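Suppose a colleague, Dr. K., hands you the sequence of a protein chain of 325 amino acids and asks what its three-dimensional shape might be. Before reaching for any lab equipment, you can write down a predicted structure in token form. Begin with the sequence itself:
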Amino acid sequence: MDALAGPKVVALGGGHGLAVSLSALRRIAGRLTAIVTVADDGGSSGRLRRELGVLPPGDLRMALAALCGDDEWGRTWADVLQHRFSGHGELHDHAAGNLLIVALWELLGGHVRGLEWVARLLGAQGHVLPMALVPMNIEALVGSVRRSADGVRDIRTVTGQHAVATVEGDVVAVGLNPSDPPACPEALTAIGEAEWVVLGPGSWFSSVIPHLLVPELREALVTTPALRAVTLNLSPEGGETTNFTPETHLEVLGAYAPDLRIDLVVADRGSVPDEAMLRRIAGEMGAELVVTDVACRDGSARHDPQLLGWTFARTLGRGRIGPWR
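The predicted structure, expressed as tokens, is then:
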């Protein structure tokens, strides 16, 4: 399918999940925009955030790398962005792309403008935007692994994206601090103009759900005329979604945005133990369920960008929901 003739697509998320979604979507979208979670507080991003007071650039960097082309220019720049310095000094483990992004923010004085310049340098096949214009913290209420003799569990508050993603216990609820961060205006415009909006895959509580916690962004997702697709994870993630079934992911999504209509749910065939149950839950949200092969064939819990791209081409590419063959 000619990408120029493809639909206008907005993909939301963060980290590796959003990156694989973008790698698939850039081959079929006529205009592709990534809207990225900016709550990272670990590693290179966390250090730059604390030292310079900037948005954490790591997930933005990964999205830009995923939008690089398959030619030598694109592959080389993707490698440059993802390159991490080694050694024993202050640059140890900093990602080169993080430093490039922050440098352009400082020189140009704007998050969106800086990201546009990075995208132009890379020849990126799409646009990358932050979901909000201020760094934020994810806060989660987490139930202890073990219950007391009377069946009650201790509930504690865990702060920070990394801590939430790796926590032991069950995440009961998540929120943002600040609770009403200013959404990126360009992100709101992109959602309003999109033909498709894609949520997931990715860390459910620390990369996907945060988009529904930014009031302006949530309102845009609810009111957009675009069709909405959800790509489910291949397996529960140790920590925040331990013991989650595919249906649980959808139920949590619905709990945070009960008025969010879903039109399409994509699930991997090998990751769905009860297709009838998943189809029922998806149907209650208004969605058609597509169960097909989208996992890497090496046995790892990763989506295959090519297989996912074929699935998107056969669903999003047609611009409407219809019978799946």
